[in-house]
Design a protein that fits this description.
Protein name: Photosynthetic apparatus regulatory protein RegA
Organism: Pseudoruegeria aquimaris
GO biological process, one term: phosphorelay signal transduction system
Strand content: 15-25%
Largest sheet: 5 strands, parallel
Shape: elongated
CATH architecture of the largest domain: 3-Layer(aba) Sandwich
CATH superfamily of the largest domain: Response regulator
GO molecular function: DNA binding
Pfam family, one: Response_reg
CATH class of the largest domain: Alpha Beta
Radius of gyration: 18 Å
Distance between the termini: 31 Å
Number of strands: 7
Order of helices and strands: HEHEHEEEHEHEHHHH
Helix content: 40-55%
Strand order of the largest sheet: 2-1-3-6-7
Structural class: alpha/beta
Number of helices: 9
Length: 184
């Protein structure tokens, strides 16, 4: 770990990670601890909000879609309890609308999964107003399409007919897409 990273983190190195995907949460927590952060984890909106209220951290990484609600609720709580908290929103379902909503309520940055600890650290420690560098391994067009279809499918409560109607797609075509593995 570089001394420069410790200087950038500052004296208050508390970091709250909120994600309902436990293996990812544990991996990211270990990686962020190695980078000098004092990490606390939460697996739900309720746990994230409780931690943010009791001990507001200096930094936070919040998954957008959690089993019990939206991670934006945690971001709002963090903004109320600690306005200077540097928040990064993570999600597996990248969309412009949610990115705009996250930034409007106070998130500094918005990263699509799979984001590694280096991406997260760079986003948390980026000077205010700096534009992040372009991703080194952006999602392919096929992957972006697949992610969008999955998102709409989930929003339609996994109803194939309704999803096909909203995507203006034939139902059988959608069923074939959903049956395949995700593209890289």
């Amino acid at each position: 770990m570089a001394d420069r990273e410790l200087e950038e983190i500052g004296e208050d190195n508390t970091l709250l990670l909120v994600d309902d995907e436990e293996p990812f949460l544990k991996r990211l927590a270990r990686a962020m601890e190695k980078r000098g952060f004092a990490v606390e984890t939460a697996g739900s909106v309720a746990a994230g909000r409780a931690y943010a209220t009791a001990r507001p951290p200096a930094y936070a990484v919040v998954d957008l879609r959690l089993e019990d609600g939206s991670g934006l609720e945690v971001v709002e709580t963090l903004r109320e309890t600690r306005p200077d908290c540097r928040v990064v929103v993570l999600t597996g379902y990248g969309a412009i609308a949610t990115a705009v909503a996250a930034v409007k309520i106070g998130a500094m940055d918005y990263l699509s999964k799979p984001a590694d600890a280096n991406d997260v650290t760079a986003a948390l420690l980026a000077p205010a107003g700096d534009l992040p560098p372009p991703p080194e391994n952006p999602m392919s067009a096929d992957r972006v399409r697949w992610e969008h279809i999955q998102r709409v499918y989930e929003l339609c409560d996994r109803n194939v007919s309704e999803t096909a109607r909203r995507l203006n797609m034939h139902r059988r075509t959608l069923q074939r897409i959903l049956a395949k593995r995700s593209p890289r």
